[in-house]
Amino acid sequence: MKFLHVADAHLDSPFGGLSFLPQAAHQEIQESTKAAFTKMVDVAITRDVDFVLLVGDTFDSNNPVPATQLFLMREIERLTKARIHTFISFGNHDYMTPENLLVQSGQFVHIFDENVATSTITAKDGTVVDVIGFSYVRNHITEDVVQYFPAKVPGHYTIGMLHGSAAGDQSGVDNYAPFSLTELNNKNYDYFALGHIHLRQVLSSNPLIIYPGNLQGRHVNEPGTKGFYELTVDENGHTTSKFVATSIFIWQTITLDLPNNLTKELLFATIIAQVDDVLKDEPTRSLITLTIRNSEVLEKELHDLLLDPAILNYLSQKISSASYLVRVHFAVKRHLQLNNLDQQYLEEARQRTFTPEEVQELAKPLMKHGFIADFLADPTTIKRLVEQAELLLQQEMGETRDAD
């Protein structure tokens, strides 16, 4: 018996902050979540699996546009035509009821509502499979839902579908169907298919308890290859797992040090050469954050050039792997040299200004944009803002000294 474990497809994720890219490139990135989903369905059909588990957040919102609903319907129709079962639960992003979905329940389509329920099928090899799950109908569930999961029926291969997070983890204070690993193990199920956490991880090997991560990284904080798990169950009921990649693009950060006394031509040539060197063995196209580790060597004119979207587009066209530069992060290796009094004033200003609370307050009008909220939630953001402020100070002080 074979099945696929998929979660967090986030169809129609907005990929905020990339609108500066050429229209064709931006459109391709916007469609990458759908392309990754189609790759998954292709694998399911090619490998003749018995069923596919979609463990929440298949859509990025609880009000997906009709075109995206139709996309999902067509993909599930492909699975149904191949006599592959699909089990669907809704998560905290796409919380809804089965009635909201254009896809309809049927012989090969099983959609969970808010109540924990068991759906039973017989696999091609005769294995009786119980799939147990539930759906979100609101975006937060603070209750431990696992307590309602029924006992395993002897002789049935039993799977728990759970879109949630371990109690007390960093995804939010127990707002997402919190559970403990101990209680999952105590259920004695054959497999627990998890969703919600976008970092791929195996929480337990016996029984297998897995977060597959999402199918396509959506921003810089979701780097690396993404995909799903293929599970194979042998005649003794032993389950083995294999990760299958679906990323259309991968997000990655490339760090470089620049030589002194740069001209525009040398700056561009250095960036292109070093990016090409990093990407030469990477089979998947990349969305690149360029971190310049010693950006204090840049003249302000060159620094400002690298902030211009047109320059990023120009450099992207020169990269041989058809990848895109989407962000430049300026770090500093040589810090400001100040007298004791100036250093004291600088440190007081830093402590007063660069606090999570102050930054969140200043950015409040922009927090409605998901990509900005994600950026500010990143624990490294404050450090980057401090580095940028220090770099600007160095540039301003350099100009002042030149004028003197």
From TrEMBL:
Could you tell me the keywords of this UniProt record?
Answer: Hydrolase
Q: What Pfam families has UniProt attached to this entry?
A: Metallophos
Pinpoint the Calcineurin-like phosphoesterase domain residues.
1-198
Entry keyword DNA repair: no
Q: Is Hydrolase a UniProt keyword of this protein?
A: yes
Mind telling me which residue stretches traverse the membrane in this protein?
none
Q: Which GO terms describe its molecular function?
A: hydrolase activity
Q: What is this protein called?
A: Phosphoesterase
Give the species this sequence originates from: Amylolactobacillus amylotrophicus DSM 20534
